[in-house]
Amino acid sequence: MSPTVTVPAGPAAPTRPGEPRLLVLKIGGSVLSDKQDTGETDFDAIGAFAGQVADLIAEYPGRVVLVTGGGALCHPVGLRIKADRQDPYAAVALTEPAFTMRWAWTARLRERGVRAVPLQVTAMFGERADGSTITETGVVRRLLAEGALPVLSSDCVVTSVGTLRILSSDEVPALMVAEEFGPVRIVTLTDVPGILTGGPGSPVLRHLDPDDLAVAERLFWPTDAWDATGAMAGKVEALAEHARRGAECVIARGDRAAGSLRHLFAPMAEWPADTPFTLISRPWSPS
Amino acid sequence: MSPTVTVPAGPAAPTRPGEPRLLVLKIGGSVLSDKQDTGETDFDAIGAFAGQVADLIAEYPGRVVLVTGGGALCHPVGLRIKADRQDPYAAVALTEPAFTMRWAWTARLRERGVRAVPLQVTAMFGERADGSTITETGVVRRLLAEGALPVLSSDCVVTSVGTLRILSSDEVPALMVAEEFGPVRIVTLTDVPGILTGGPGSPVLRHLDPDDLAVAERLFWPTDAWDATGAMAGKVEALAEHARRGAECVIARGDRAAGSLRHLFAPMAEWPADTPFTLISRPWSPS
């Protein structure tokens, strides 16, 4: 099943200036399914992206955490959970489609020689009654040290008032925004090349200050009818929070036919000129 | 889905002498399926036991962790994993059937008003390169404090040499054998009333000293052809390890038609006379 042996690199791997130690790669449900139309998960797309990720892991073993978007499988469940006003544990329903997505990735990554291990965020993250955060990532760090690939997703998590809520896949990178992983880059691949400054096809916002989101907010449009996570607005809010904690956050287009993801580890100034993106980071030195 | 609201009890709940604070209840795959014959999981049995567990949780909210045996779904996968000599990550294959079992319990417990939350052991437990143990149970404790029921199972875990291995459902209670949970009682319900002293129907061994297993070993018979975990021998070895760490471990028969599980919280001397069991504990004061 898994013939290729990757060399353990782990937290001691060297980096050059502007290069992240850890890449948290979120591949959005929007490129794995059509949330608005067919309601189907595109397992061929997962296979194609799994090939790109396998190539990246071969070059950077132990330095990637994958976060899968939920897409068609998870969003209808998410909407039902949000509509439930009775059951404070309704969000546990997300557990099943979230597992299915993680497992679909794991199977396809293993076929390509990656030591992929799906991990449930519910078991590692939550809030205590005093509002402080439970973040237990010992197994994530252990797997990275062995050159393996943790596969995470949205999941339900326990809140400070003892209910369950959905932790969206855009929020999940919070588990890895901690000193022992840093510097961390969070790249979210989606169906647009960044925050669009106008309608479809318009140029993207190159940089967003996570302490001043007003410039972005007027660019967003309402999508709640078909997307449980508020689409771009929710994504930017979650990424800005990671950026305020020190992560470098990038929104770019996911292309299943792309040749390589290697540039995701390069300093931002070295990204290919034909690859637009929005960077959300603090502080930022334009280069 | 979950109309009944259980009252949070959590770690502050009072106990009387001989009563455990936390009950880790393992319901064996052998009573949920026929490992030798049909190869089918008995979902009606899961439903019946879920009813018993729901009654117990109503009385002792926040003081039970459920561990489901794998049974027919997991054992064939376990045997294939053990036979694999090539892939050090072969054990990840257990993740899927283990999830299916946890989810089957969760759905049936929720129908009965229990705030059941399935948790993946892979994400909470493992070994570091220096051989020390990663045990991260903050979410388990948090859910118990809210009166919820964590639902665990066998899973793959990372080893000190960086491979994955199966952690059997008899080994899983190790996560809860720690001071913050104690005193802990581990009850494993199976298809025999304890360690039999002879053939089928013979009396059971009443007590086993976890530091002297020789007396039990001559009572075991080989079962490896159909059971990935070595049946009773593997179970006793795992429970003896928990007992050496201070837990009170009990093997008893699981009966889906039983009226109540309330006695599982009683001091051992108060268990019903018609309920045989084998107790593995250190020290033991016969009463």
Shape of chain A: globular
Number of strands of chain A: 12
Number of domains of chain A: 1
Give the amount of beta strand of chain A, in percent.
Answer: 15-25%
Distance between the termini of chain A: 44 Å
Written overview of the protein:
Chains A, B: One of its GO terms (cellular component) is cytosol. Chains A, B: This is Isopentenyl phosphate kinase. Chains A, B: GO terms for molecular function: ATP binding; glutamate 5-kinase activity. Chains A, B: InterPro entries: AceGlu_kinase-like_sf, Asp/Glu/Uridylate_kinase. Chains A, B: Keywords: ATP-binding, Kinase, Nucleotide-binding, Transferase. Chain A has 287 residues and is of the alpha/beta class. Chain A has one domain: 3-Layer(aba) Sandwich (Carbamate kinase). Helix content of chain A is 25%, strand content 18%. Chain A contains six helices and twelve strands. In chain A, the strands form three sheets. In chain A, strands 3-6-2-1-9-11-12-10 form an eight-stranded mixed sheet, sandwiched between helices. A two-stranded antiparallel sheet of chain A has the order 4-5. A two-stranded antiparallel ribbon of chain A has the order 7-8. In chain A, strand 1, helix 1 (43-59) and strand 2 form a beta-alpha-beta unit. The radius of gyration of chain A is 18 Å and the shape is globular. The model of chain A is unreliable at 1-11 and 224-229 (pLDDT under 50). Chains A and B meet through helix 3, strand 3, strand 4 and helix 4 of A and helix 3, strand 3, strand 4 and helix 4 of B.
